[in-house]
Every structure is written in structure tokens, then in C-alpha cells.
Amino acid sequence: MEMEKCKGNPSGLTRELVLGAKKLGFCDKQIAKCLESTELAIRQTRLEFGITPFVKQIDTVAAEWPAQTNYLYLTYNASSHDLDYPGGYTMVLGSGVYRIGSSVEFDWCAVGCIRELRKSGKNTIMVNCNPETVSTDYDMCDRLYFDDISFETVMDIYNLENPEGIILCMGGQLPNNIAMDLHRQSARILGTSPESIDNAENRFKFSRMLDNIGILQPQWKELTDIETAIKFAENVGYPCLVRPSYVLSGAAMNVAHTHHDLKTYLTEASAVSKEFPVVISKFILEAKEIDVDAVAADGEVLSMAVSEHVENAGVHSGDATLVTPPQDLNEETLQKIKLICCAIGRELEVTGPFNLQLIAKDNQLKVIETNVRVSRSFPFVSKTLGHDFIAMATKVIIGEKVEPVKCLMGRGRVGVKVPVFSFSRLAGADVIVGVDMASTGEVACFGNDRYEAYLKALLSTGFRLPKSNILLSIGSYKAKVELLPTVKVLENMGYKLYASMGTADFYTEHDIKIKAVQWPYEDIRGHDARQHRSIADYLVENKFDLVINLPMRNGGSRPVSSFVTQGYRTRRMAIDYSVPLITDVKCAKIFVEALRRIGGPPSVQSSIDCMTSRDVIQLPGLIDVHVHLREPGATHKEDFASGTASALAGGITMVLAMPNTNPAIVDQESFMLAQKLARQGARCDYGLYLGASSTNAADLPSIADNACGLKMYLNDTYTTLRMDDVTHWMKHFESWPSNLPIVAHAEQQTTAAIILLTEIYRRPVHIAHVARKEEIMIIKAAKERGLPVTCEVAPHHLFLSDEDLKVIGQGQGQVRPMIATLEDQQALWDNMEIIDCFATDHAPHTVEEKNSEKPPPGYPGLETMLPLLLTAVSEKRLTLEEVIDRLYTNPKKIFNLPDQPNTYIEVDLDHEWTIPTAMKWTKSKWTPFAGRKVKGIVKRVVLRGEMAYVDGQVLSTPGNGIDIKLLPKHAVSTHKLTASNVRQTVKTSMGTKAMSVSVPVTGSAPPSEPVSPLKLVFGTEPRFVNPPHVTRNLNIETFPTDSPQQGSGDALVKISPNPPVSHPIGLTGYSSGMTGRHVLNVGSLSKEQLHQLFNLAHSMRVAVIKDRPLDYLLKGKVMASIFYEVSTRTMCSFAAAMMRLGGSVIYMNEHMSSSKKGESIRDTIAVMSSYADVLVLRHPEPGCVETASRVCRKPLINAGDGIGEHPTQALLDIFTIREEIGTVNGLTITMVGDLKHGRTVHSLARLLTLYRVTLRYVSPTCLQMPQSVVDYVSTKGIKQEVYTSLEDALPETDVLYMTRIQQERFKKLQQYNEVKGSYIITPKLMTKAKKKMVVMHPLPRVDEINESFDSDPRAAYFRQAEFGMYVRMALLGLILGKC
């Protein structure tokens, strides 16, 4: 009651009254409604009274101890805060209350953002009020405000905490809805600017942006009235989609198929979103919908994911079945998607996450919408593709440098997300899904392909696989035809098929055995009623294991039937009796195909289905080209079974076994023995060397094709194969097949000798276990001369030196070559680019042998090599790419090794451990690295699709290994760890990430010829290419990468014309018709020129906001500012515009002019035009500027001529309308005040005739719009209405253009006083206006706009003045021909 006394009189408010209302829980908006004021006006009053909320801490320990939890809330029923405010926090807004379409997915994003902020050392604040999820756990952040996501609450917390900024983009739609309100109050928003958010949400702005960059979109129109909506629908054809802006979960979205539908849905949409416009667009049937999730920094896309819908377009993404990586999109389509994503990201200047929804049909892609925030699918794509998009987005938002990550094709698995519905709990609800979201949950599962993943996901929702009987009820003929092959598959699988009458007739005609069943409730009487059982009877008795019911109309249909049909009854009964139900044709097809392929519930695969919170990466199966397995002859040291078990435990999936066994492998008999033993014992894939001797050069070529290479021992080692005679070497070089490698044990001078033979015979040679500085340097010199020499280094030569012999012992330390000096060791590290391979030289001996008087040389190393190298990676001595090059890429090329299909390893990079005295699997039972701390361990090894090693256990059995000569030469891996999938490992706190490699093309050289020095550079792929700023069409062409495999989706994008520069420029190739011309009145301007001018002004505005230099445009140019009449905004904005573009300004006014000496304006302008490149003239006499233009040799701009025209003011006014509302067409623009003398409204009214608008004039009778202007506007067909009451004109007004009553235009003060104050804008008056409208004023104002209204977001007049500078910048650039 006390409040109502102050209605219409805010000055009557007292502090006690406001405080009392706040203590009772009334928000500012509610108080404003009661007082007929605005929320911001009440807020301003409240702050002036010093009324702000207090922050209290929820006591979670019943006052027994001081509460330490971070549960905070705002209250006015307190006298002090429970904590201090040091500032410097980063504030993250959550998704708000739990509801369909929100919560879990967005909370996952918000929590991920908080975690990443804390990792970066930031103190964090979470604002959210959802008790269902982790985002409101007290230990997730430093401060948790359990309050609503509203402008008032967020702004109050912001003022108290004074954070570094607010992150809006992690909480879904609700934070985005208050973005502009926060921005208007100067809150620091981190990430994408609120204006870019509005550019994406505002359909007019977004549509214009797409048109400008040549991207297609469905036809659409904003609602004005029912008649225009119906006319639009008739023009484009039904069906049409009805949707409001700024909504989540498709609230009030519907597909209209008739006029009646359209009228009904428009009413609903208007009721849901009264503050935001309702949009009608053409609904495209039988199209594929595509979701794109991406992260960008300053408009440059860093990473993106593409998910395709299984269902046809028309199903909300929250209810759709999503698949990623995309399985059906071809390379051309993926390239177009990349281009569109990059173009939109750049135009919106996105910094952080964003989401695109596209529709594809007939090889055309159209953009449905863009959300500059996270979407529901961000958690799904992050987990499926193995890349944390939220962590990347958070780093970008806080300004950290982030490198691009290409993860589009994932990490070798497919993810499918299916919805979970609660229809069984919603009596009467139809099961049909549509454009508005109805699901209450979702399940995502992984698989080797989409079918496996889909079946897992479907089963996870509680869906049961059919055992026998399936009911089919297919509505449309088209769907019946489409499902025909699927139904045949069901018949072939042995299912007993039933169908409704029409469906049964169709499939019976196509020779499918199917039983017809009557619809429920058919009018069957007498004897037939007892004999014919209906569909309802079968459902009640649970005789059907599956119902496939496809309604006649399934394109975005409503989820609740408006009338009862037989199909609806069937669907409803299936739900009520818990019978599995499929209602979409695409889902039916993928389900049956999955059932055909898999046959039953898919088995769990830990490599596919399991995830870890540790930093686990996936690498290709590694290759060791130098292994001694001691069999035949010394199985007490090692054999194929134990040695290959050690290899698997060390992440090695392929070993090449040395020939120095007993007997040595030097002839066919010994080679066949080794093959037999390997087949029986090997657990991983293997290859066998042949040993060169002084007598077998002529015999070996006949069996060479079965060997992996020839091993020549040229120095002292543990073997009988040493050859000292160079002529014997030469015989082997001459006879050994040129396509097979030669490996040489060569030390010191012998290295130079074997390299000499390489040059003589011009054939490759591979130098084993390089250990000394002199060896690596001579190999380097040979490579620099172009000789085909490659080499390997053993880990013990990289990580041990002769200094370590003190610990290892002289006996156990024996190895060939011996570990060398620290200088030799450092030389190896310094020349890492010369080293082609790492190889263990695994040479096990028993502990007893190593401790004997004559210890044999050799170290075990298969289980310790990778942990040592990964430790070097963590210490930044190596990179993962260098490790993979030397243990996978280069060995495959040098030794011409085949692929191992579906083979990879998983490595935990974070695991720290100490190497024990003896490793588990080798028989040697000792290691020279005992006691060394390492970081990194092998967790899993998958060999040809089977788990071979997991968590310390070797699962592969002896005999499971395959001779590499029996593997296909061009085996194709379905696991996607192929050469075409180059992935960069990015450290996240998520799951396993793929790391695959690129195998260089060999060209015409022999397959075994090395490409050394081979230094592949990872992570240097081009960034996503941003498109140039062009007008209507993007001219693009795509071309594949040099990768040996295509279709990965990672091809580069080539864009024509040249890539864009960092500064905005004019739209090239277009002649505006403004260059060198005068701008005297608005009549000389065309609609196309305005479009050109405003687009350029917008680009320049963005450049100024982003601190991008524009001073190169008009550098050296001079503008003359000639003002015979006082001015602040026009004169200063022109001067600022010229200076920002790099030009200079000379000034002249009435007091400085020679007109005081009698000089005419004509002479003054003639003189000034010789000093300047462009002139800006204001004069109090109407027509004076036009007179001056006749003698002006340079472009002259009219800055106002008395009560005549002010064209640049009209230009900036229309630009302001475009920037604020998004469009000019269809608006009602009300001009108020002194319309008789107001030159600004004269020009504006004339210029608005280029648009479809309604003009309203509100003024005193003596100050009405001049008849000449009214007549001009009338001839253009523009509707004009005259009012004397502002209150009558206000409710339907979109733009309220206020002008001051100009005292200087009245001859008598009495006349001025009679009309002064006729129209005054106050918060109370503006309660009658639309929420989405703007108030403009050319300024200066007197009293026609109360200052209490300045804080209202609709108050655009100060922004209008700012926009004037950008319009004048664009105008100057175009006139001077520099844009």
C-alpha cells in the first residue's frame, strides 16, 4: 500500500520504504512495475539510498564450528558481510535452475571452465542456483553464490566483488540474455563481446551478416501481424518454422503446416517471448541437420567439431541422435562447413566457444543459427574426440596463447548421443519429437563405428533388443519405400513381422512375409470381433518386442497430439506397456543395420568404452628394429615368448630379431628353424634378419625376400659373424637385393668405411647403435652430401655414460659399443635431427653371466626404453613427435614395414615410478637403469584389434605374433591411427587422446631408401583459414593435403581472393558512386550506397573497439572543418573521424573567417578547397551549402544548413537504428518535438523513404512537420500519422526520435515558453513503451528527456553520438576513394 502511494511519483520514495520492500524479497523489476517505473531507475534510486545486499555464508555445521564452506547468498536482512572482498576474482555464470534443455551439459562446461581457471592460478566465483549438479559443490570454486541468474543479482555481486571480468558463455542461454544489460552498465565481459552476441541473436543483424559474406540461410521474416505471416507462408510454401529469439530448448518453436497452425503457434510464441521478436522461416523437409562446435580466438577458429543428426531436420538437437565424427559427410561438404565456421567466427569476432546449426540439402548448406556460447553437445564432442574444448575456450578467454588443434576426425572411435524421454510419466503425451525439446536426459556411448555406438547408447536408455515379434506401422508412402530394404533385412534375420493393414498390404506386394493386424478400436462386430485380434490386444499381452511406428507427418511435428489418431493410440500404448518404440525412419534404419551387423548387445572394449582422468594418450604401435631374442640356442637368456612379452610391456608391437643366435641365421636351414620358433613363441609381430658372413654372399639372395634385412657385424661383438675383410662387405653389397635394407654394426673408423661403400654402390645402409661423437659427426657429414645413410641410437647410449659404470659395475656395464663419455653422450643429444631411429639393442644375459669373470656384453631394454624417452619428453629434452618419428614413422619407411591394422598403445604420461632391480617379463632379471625415477608408463597395447597388454599383464599368447612378411603390404587400419590423421596431443584432464603420424611419400625412390635427415615437423599445419571480407559470394576451391589417404576431413581450405588483412577495408570491386562527390542532401543517396556505407561503418567500429589501426587509410589527407554555427557533436565527430583514419584537420569558424571583412561564402569555400581534400560546412542559412558547392573543387559535405537539411545526421540516425534494432524495415518511427525547425528530422524523414516504415509525428500544432516534407514522404508511399499526444503514439513505437524545442528558432520568448516542455521522457512514461525499442536524440537536449532515463538500455542517444563518428569515418573514406 505504501508503494502504491508513490505510483507515478518516484520522488516520494523513501529509503525505509525501498529497504522494506527489498527485505520482503521484492526485486527491482517488481518494484518498478508497482511504481510504473523502470528496473534501472529503481536500481539507481536504491543505490543512491545506499541500499545494497549483504553476503552471508550458509552455516553447514549448525553453529558448532565456524563454517568454512563457500555457500554464499545475497540478503537484505543483515547488517554486515560474512567475508571480505579483495577483488581480482574471475566470475563464471552457470545455467540457472534445472529445467529441460539446461543443467547438466552447461554445468559440465561451467565446471570445466572453473577448473581451468584455477589451474591458471585464478581465483574463481561461480554464480548458480542449481542444486542438482557439481557446479554448486562448495569445493568446485573459491566462492559460490547460490542465487538466480538475473541482471540485478549478477550486477550486485559484480559491484561487491569487483572481479577481473564475467564469463557468460559457459552457462547457456540465460547468461546470454543479460549480456547487453551487463554491458550497458560497463561490466567487464570476458570472451566474445556482448555486441557480437547480440549480432548473432538478432535475426536481422545475423541475416545481414550472412548476406554480406555470401553464406546461405533459409528464407525468414520477423512477425509483424498474422496477415503478413500468412502471406509470407504462402510465398515460400508450407511448412514454416515459428520461433522467438533469445530462447533455449526451442521454447514455443513449432512447425506450421496450415494457416490454422500458423495462427495458433504465433500466438503461443508471442506469449512465451513478449520482449523479443518472433521469426517465421521456411522449414526445409528431408534435409540433414549438422551441428558445429568450435573455439575461436579473436575470430580465428582454433578447433572445431562436426556432429551430424541421424534424424532428418526438424528434430531439436537436444532430442536428436547425434554422431561424431561425421560419418556421412563427404570431403567437399566438410570443407564448406569449415569455411562457413571460419567466416562466421571471424565476422562475429568470437573469442571463446560458439555453435553453429546448419541444414544440408541438394549439396547446399544453409545456416540456421549461431549461438555465441557453449551448446549441449560440447561435453559430448569433447569426450568423443579426446579434446577438451572447454579448457581451450577458457584459456582463450583469459588471454592465454593457444595453438590450433585439429581434432575433427577424432581419436579412432565414433560417439553417438541418443535422447532419454520421460513419456511414460507424462500421461497423454505423444511420443513424436519435434523442433521444441522434450527429452529429459541423454546417453552417449562410443564404438568402433556408428552402429556399435548407437546400439550401446540405445541399450543404455533401457531399450530392449527384439527377440521375435516386430510391429510395423508406416504412415507415408515415401517412408514405406525408404524402409523396404530395412524390412527385408528384418525378414532375413528371422523376425516375425506384423503390420497395420496398409503397411502389410504394401510389403506383401513386395514379397515380404508379414501378418496384417487391425488397428485398435476398429468397428468389428459379431463373430469377427472374437477372431480378429487388434494391435491393442497384442500390446496389452506384450506380444510385440518392438514397435516401429512412423506417423504420416513427421517433419517437426508437435510432441502432443491435437487429436486422437490410431497411430497416436498405438504409440501411447507401446509406452504405457513398456514396449520398445521407434518413431523415426532414420533411427529405424540405423537400428536395424546395427542389429544386422552386431547381432546382439555389443561387447565392452576397454580401449573404446573406458576413459581416465589422467593424461593418457594414444600412440601407434611402436617398432624396435634391433632386438636380440637369443632363440635358437640360448633360451635361458631369452626366447621369443619372453622377449616379445617384454616388447609388449614396453609398448613395442613389432620387433626385428637379430641373427647372432646359436646357430647363427646365415642360411636357409637356420632361417627356417628361426621362423618355426618365432611362429610358436612370438606374442607380437616380428621380422627376422639374415646374418652376413664371409662365405654366404652368393647364397642369401635366394631367401632374402623372407627376411627383414641383412645384418653385417663389422666390429667386435657377442657373435661369430664378425667380418674384417672389406672385400667380403663388397660382395654382400653387390648381391643383396636393392629393395631390402642392410644394417651394419660399425664403430669409429669402420663407420667411415661402410659409408664409403654406400657412396660407391649408391645404395642405402643403416648404421646400428651409434654411440660416439665421431660416429654421429661422420654420419651427419654423409647426410649433408646426400648419401643414403640412416642410423639408430640405443637408449643406454643416450641416458648412460662411463660415469655410470661406478654404479652399474664394470662387469654388468659391458656392452657393445661401450657406453662412452659425457661428451659423446651430449653429441648424440645435440644432433638429434641426424638420428633416424631409437632401438633398444635388447641383448639380455642372466645376472649370473653378467657377474662372471668374463661377462658377455649387452643390456636388456625393451621394457625401459619408452619410459626413459617419455621422461625426456616431460623434461622438454624431446617431443612426443620426435619419439614417434624414431619408433614408428622412420622405421616403417627405412625397413619397408607393413601396417599393423587396428594396432595402438595407450600411455599414461603422468605416472611417476622408479625402475626396479629387475623388469617383470625379460628373463635377464636385471637392468642398468635400476633405481632411476621415470615419468610415463604403458597402460594398454592393442594388437590387430585385440587387447595384448593391459595394466601390467600380457594377454597375448605365444604364437599370436605374425611374421611381417605375412602381413598385407598396404593394410588399412579401421582404427583411424593412419597416416592421414595427424593429431597434436594436447594435455587435458580428460580421456585418451589420439596421436598419429604422417608417413612421408617416397616418390620413385626404392622403398627402403631413407629420407634422412628426416625431421618431420608436427603441429605446423596451417590454422583454419579465415575467409576474406567479400560481398555476396565466397569463391572457394578445396584441395586435398599431401597425405597418402584422403577423406579424413583435414584437407586445407584454399580461399580466393587473397587471405584477409587484419584491418577492415571497403568492399572491393564495388563502385559506390560517392567518390569525389558532394553530399548535400539525402535525396542524392541510394539504398545500395547506404548499405555500402553502413557495412563499412560497422567494420570500422569493430576495428576501433579492437584497437586495430586505421590511420593508414587517409594518411596525408586534409579535411577543412568550416562551421559558421556552433556545434559540438558534428564538428568533433568529423574531426575525430578524420584523425582516426590518419588525416589532419584545419579549422575555420565565423569568428576566424574573413567574412567579417566582407568576404562572401563562395570566395571562402573556393579558397579553402585549395587547401584541403574534403570540406565539411555548416551554415545557418538554408541553401547556403548548395550555393557553396558550385564553386568548391573538392568534395563538400553538408553538416547542417539552418532549418534545411543535415544529411550526415540522418545517416548516423539510420545506422544507429540498424545497430540497435538490427533493421529499419517494418518499424514504426515516431518523431517528437520541434518538427518544423528540426533539420535533423527533415533529412531523416526523407531518407527513411528508402525503407518500409511507418512515420508518426508528435508535435505542438505550431511546430508540425513542414508540408514539403510530408508531401515528399507521401509520394514515396510511406504511411504517415500525426499525433499531439505522445502517450497515444508510444505503445506501437519502435524508434522514438526526440528533438528539443529550439529557443533560437522563436522570435518571441512567450511563444517558446508556451510549447516548452510539451513532451518529456520519464521512466514512468516509458513503462507504456515496448521493451525492445530505442529512444534517440540528435542532442543537445534541454529537458525533453529526464536524466533518470539515461540508465535505461533503450536510451540510445549517447551511443547514437558515438555511432556518428563511425558513419563519418566511412563517409570520408568512401568520398576520398580510399575504401
Quick overview:
This protein has 1379 residues and is α/β, with parallel strands linked by helices. Helices cover 32% and strands 18% of the residues. The two termini are 62 Å apart.
Features:
1379 residues, alpha/beta, 7-stranded mixed β-sheet, 48 strands, globular
What's the topology here?
Blueprint: H1 2-5, H2 15-23, H3 28-35, H4 39-48, E1 54-57, E2 71-75, E3 90-93, H5 104-119, E4 124-127, E5 143-145, H6 151-161, E6 165-167, H7 173-177, H8 179-184, E7 189-190, H9 194-201, H10 203-212, E8 220-222, H11 226-236, E9 240-244, E10 254-256, H12 259-272, E11 278-282, E12 288-297, E13 300-312, E14 322-324, H13 331-347, E15 352-361, E16 364-371, H14 378-385, H15 389-397, E17 414-420, E18 441-447, H16 450-460, E19 469-474, H17 477-492, E20 496-500, H18 501-509, E21 515-517, H19 526-531, H20 535-540, E22 546-550, H21 566-576, E23 581-582, H22 585-598, H23 606-609, E24 616-620, E25 622-627, H24 640-649, E26 652-657, H25 668-681, E27 685-691, E28 709-713, H26 726-735, E29 742-745, H27 749-761, E30 765-767, H28 773-784, E31 789-793, H29 795-799, H30 805-808, H31 822-830, E32 837-838, H32 847-850, H33 865-874, H34 880-894, E33 904-914, E34 933-943, E35 946-950, E36 953-954, E37 993-994, E38 1035-1038, E39 1053-1056, H35 1087-1105, E40 1118-1123, H36 1129-1140, E41 1144-1149, H37 1161-1168, E42 1174-1179, H38 1184-1189, ...
Parallel strand pairs: 2-5, 3-4, 3-6, 4-5, 6-7, 19-20, 19-22, 20-21, 22-23, 24-37, 25-26, 26-27, 27-28, 28-29, 29-30, 30-31, 31-32, 40-41, 40-42, 42-43, 44-45, 44-47, 45-46, 47-48
Antiparallel strand pairs: 1-2, 8-11, 9-10, 9-11, 12-13, 12-15, 13-14, 14-17, 15-16, 17-18, 24-33, 33-34, 34-35, 35-36, 38-39
Helix pairs in contact: 3-4, 5-15, 9-10, 11-12, 16-22, 17-22, 24-25, 26-27, 27-28, 28-31, 35-44, 36-44, 39-40, 39-44
